[in-house]
Amino acid sequence: MKILYLRSSMLLMLCFVGIFSAYAQLSSINGLVVDEINHPIAGAVIRVAGTKQASRTGSDGKYALNGIKKGQITLLVSFVGYAPQKNIVNLSQEVTEVNFKLQRTEEVLNEVVVIGYGTQKKQDLTGSITTVTTKDFQKGTITTPEQLIQGKVAGVNIVSNGGQPGSGSMIRIRGGASLNASNDPLIVIDGVPLSGNGINNAPNPLALINPADIASFTVLKDANATAIYGSRASNGVILITTKRGALGKPMIEFNTNNSYSTIAKKVDVLSADEIRAYFDAHPNATYANAPFKNLLGNAHTDWQDEIYENAFSTDNNLTFSGAFKGIPYRLSGGYLDQKGMLITDRFKRTTGGLAIQPKLFDGHLKIDLNLKGTLTKAHFANQGAIANAIQFDPTQAVRTDNDQYGGYFEWIAGEVLNRNAARNPVAMILMQDNNGKTKRSFGNVQLDYSFHFLPELHANLNLGYDVSSGRGNIFVPANAALNFASAGFLNESHSTQNNQVAEFYLNYAKNLESIKSKVDLTAGYGYYDNKTTNYNFKNYSADGTTVQFTPAFPFNIPRNKLLSYYGRLVYTFADKYILSSTMRADASSRFSEKNRWGYFPSVGFTWRLKEENFLRKSDYLSDLKIRLSYGQTGNKDGIGDYNYLAKYYLNAPAGQYQIGDRFYDYYSPSDYDPDLTWESTTNYNAGLDFGFLDGRISGSLDVYNKRTKNLLSSIDIPSGTNFNNILLTNVGNMKVKGAEFSINLDLLQRKELNWTIGFNASYNKREVTNLSLNPDPRFKISAGTITGGTGVNIKYNGIGKTPQSFFVYKQIYDQNGKPLENVYADINHDGVVNTDDQYFYKSPDPAFTLGFSTSFNFRRWTVSTVLRSNIGNYVYDNVSSNFAVQNSIMSSQGFVNNASRDIFNTQFISNQYLSDYYVKNASFLKMDNLTLVFDAGKIIKGQSSNLRISAGCQNVFVITKYKGLDPEVFSGVDFNLYPRPRIYNLGLSVGF
Q: Is the distance from CB of 147 to CB of 159 less than 8 angstroms?
């Protein structure tokens, strides 16, 4: 027994000795990676050569490698835009410190840029392409992706639709290329093109994408860059790349951003006392044989204060990333809870994402799997209350002692509700319950195989999907004035989308050193299927049993498909001359067989002057190249799925025919054009890229000219030739010209002091050149109405004019500068002022857009800001034209309205809707955000951890001559705009 015990003890002792010996043979390495000015580099990868051991630097530039065998090893470090380094290290101690200082490559020209169906070095680009990465994103409360690059890219104008939670934006690249079809750019996320369709019960389809998951935006602007996307590229392309994992130790990162939103500005309307004073000044005004002032109340109500409130929001994101057995991964989750300024408005979003990139067959097969999922829940406040809060009588109280209409004050005509009066804005919100829920998932798997026998040849397969479902319901109680005549309202909605993509291409890239040439050839195929299912439900009164409306069909399934073949050839000679050519052929189900195929070619040329002998040795010039391009792109979006087909529609229930005792539905033919075809845009672009002082100064200059033909336009047709007297067909032409300039400056590069500045400017001019089958310089088409006047069109498309220009009378003023009511200029000098004297005057399009950003860093502190400016954009003040007249304040229908303060400027009695007085210069300068960041660095001793704290303000100030709520109105007509809030942010980022 003793012998057995002794043997066991000796064996156990030997095991401990072996274990300690093994540990004694292992070592750890830590250190710091900085750039040439000793600024920490976050995200650099450090590898042990010949092994799978790797690490990645945190935001403080520090890294750690553990469990490395002692002896001589080679460390490799790399980071995009910097020259890689290696260091041979002899490990003899338990802990060894190894630091790296990386040097920039030539103006970061070797940086790889994402392009359509592949990547390309920045130095080799022939098209007009701009990339924005995380370090340059807008800061603060960002709920939708496009807000990240607002003001950051020359030629890209992003205008938010207002302050609603999750609200989207209008995105225009070089002004757009259409009149009646879509002007939205194509958005591609990780190789999955988005359909561009809205998602039911979501404030905005892009709001279902978490901005925290995005790594970069690449904006393709000219035809040489976009033509590879063919029929969807006339309005530019935005490629979004989401974040990936990286080799190295696992990392956990938590980010939280909490914000407090306040009203930056309200519409300037009269107070209760000013309304009373106005009525005192008009003592003879009567209604029903009594003084009008008898209708006034005793309250002092600011209706805008009643419907708006300060709001708190929180956005939280948790990320796990790293590599498992050599497979990079990233797992993310996010939760957003955003309250709106309009009471009861709220948007909640839960997101999840997974990205893994395994490699098989000795790295010949690369797999890129990306999956994203989103759940949202929203309560939509009634935005009709915004205009009513401007209009409603401030002398009335919010509530009354009467329980009728929910206890809210409403205007009465005799014993019944006054149908012509505005509804109580508070009641409009609190007595309507509008809820929506959505689910969305999109993603793809991309397989890239490099052939063993020919590694220059790659086969790439991309299979992607984008599916969503949206449900919602609206309830208005029977006693609400909003739907009093129908005893309330109860409605349900539901729709789904199922979009699928399959793409396959071959890519061959070969460096032919013997002839100083490089060849990069791509040829591919694409299939895209977009299907929507809309379910139709009955509308009920509030009791849920009384039917108000019965749909003709339980559902409908609009669907369109696209089949594509595409190719690209890039030839480079002597690293100086680069020729690129693309071709895409698209077949769309939206057109008849004879017009189904469209062909979209492009060609581009780049001359890298910096590589010429007379410039190569320049000490100051780091980059100089000229780009020239030509191409054609198409537009099929914004066109109905079945507009080319002869079809019938079922009548509304109210239009049934009675035969005997029964009522019968009937079908009516709809107008159609079997010859509908693509809108086609021809684009010419010339560009200059430059860089000085090793890239400390860099920028570009582009000029472009676009001509679009076969524009969709509504034209008058002879009666009997179709099933309507107006037909949407391809007859229009438009031209767009412009210029873009951008520059980036590293003003200061010191060990503890850095200052960078970015500036961009663009000029854009659109002009309609034809609108009819028989060219007529006087022909025009309505492009927008206003609120108030029935059938009053304020915007038109006209020959030789900017699209959506205002069409108005020229106002005459008195000697004191006051507009004279109903007095306009006789433009054509025929002695009569009539509609022939209306003229085109200004447009909502800005002539110039400017963007400015700067970041100043001192030690651990960084302050940054972004400013934007539009110059030459005009807005029609529909708030004043509708409400700021005496006949609106003292309505002949027996109620009192409020007015904007413009009533004191005009003193109009009746509405002058078509006066150019209301077309206002809305040029502006905005500070989008001001942010202060403190980098606390390592927070746990001995661990690779970091802490960053940020504080900031968004919508800091606006400088403008426009006296309305906000000068930035995309439509050009200011009415019922949801105010953009001023937001105060406090953020925290922790990484381990």
A: no
Alpha-carbon distance of 865 to 859, in angstroms, equals 18
Q: Under a CB-based contact definition with an 8 Å cutoff, are residues 981 and 956 in contact?
A: no
CB of 255 within 8 A of CB of 212?
Answer: yes
Q: Give the residue-averaged pLDDT of 897-924.
A: 96
The residues near 990 (Cβ < 8 Å, ≥ 6 apart) are: 253, 254, 255, 939, 945, 946, 947, 948
CA distances from 687 to 153, 216, 235, 789 (A): 15, 23, 19, 47
622's CB contacts (< 8 A; 6+ apart) are 106, 107, 610, 691, 692, 693, 694, 695, 698
pLDDT in tens, 574-600: 989 999 999 999 999 999 899 999 999
From residue 380, alpha-carbon distances to 209, 429, 497, 533, 902 in Å are 19, 9, 22, 23, 31
What is the C-alpha separation between 747 and 374, in angstroms, rounded?
42
Q: How confident is the model at residue 968 (pLDDT cuts 50, 70, 90)?
A: very high
As a whole number of angstroms, the distance between CA 29 and CA 10 comes to 35
What CA–CA distances, in Å, run from 363 to 114, 118, 448, 508? Answer: 21, 18, 10, 17
Tokens linked to 512 = 């032919």
Inter-CA distances, 541 with 148, 480, 487, 553, 840, Å: 43, 12, 6, 20, 46
pLDDT in tens, 666-683: 788 888 888 888 889 999
Q: Which two tokens stand for residue 753?
A: 């002091």
CA–CA gap between residue 600 and residue 27 (Å, rounded)? 59
Q: Any residues with CB less than 8 A from the CB of 864 and at least 6 apart, and which?
A: 139, 853, 854, 855, 856, 929, 930, 931, 933
Q: Are strands 62-69 and 811-813 parallel, antiparallel or unpaired?
A: unpaired
Cα-based distances in Å from 569 to 388, 451, 623, 871: 59, 20, 24, 40
Q: How many C-beta atoms lie closer than 10 Å to residue 8's C-beta?
A: 10
Q: Look up residue 926 and give its two tokens.
A: 């905005």
- Give the whole-angstrom CA distance, residue 422 versus residue 411: 8
- Residue 943 confidence (pLDDT): 64
CA distance 677 to 182: 14
| Residue 903 near residue 268 (C-beta atoms within 8 A) | no
Contact yes or no for 540/483 (Cβ under 8 A): no
In sequence order, the β-bridge partners of residue 734 are: 708, 768
Closest listed residue to residue 183, CA positions, set 594, 785, 852, 633: 633
Residue 425 dihedral angles phi and psi, to the nearest 5°: -65, -35
Helix ranges (H only) for 716-870 are none
Its sign, for the CA torsion 342, 345, 347, 348, is positive
Which pTM was predicted? 0.87
Give the list of residues 6+ apart from residue 746 with CB closer than 8 angstroms, or none: 695, 696, 697, 754, 755, 756
The two tokens of residue 884 are: 């700021």
- Rounded CA-CA distance 803/800 in Å is 9
How many Å apart are CA 237 and CA 226, to the nearest integer? 6
Single-letter residue type at 71: G
Q: How far is residue 721's CA from residue 197's CA, in Å, rounded to a whole number?
A: 33
Q: DSSP states of 821-852 as a string?
A: EEEE--TT-SS--SGGG-EEE--SS-SEEEEE
Token digits of residue 473: 């319901």
Residue 6 confidence class, pLDDT cut points 50, 70, 90 = very low
Tokens at residue 183, please? 């002007």
Pick from 775, 124, 117, 225: nearest CA to 504: 117
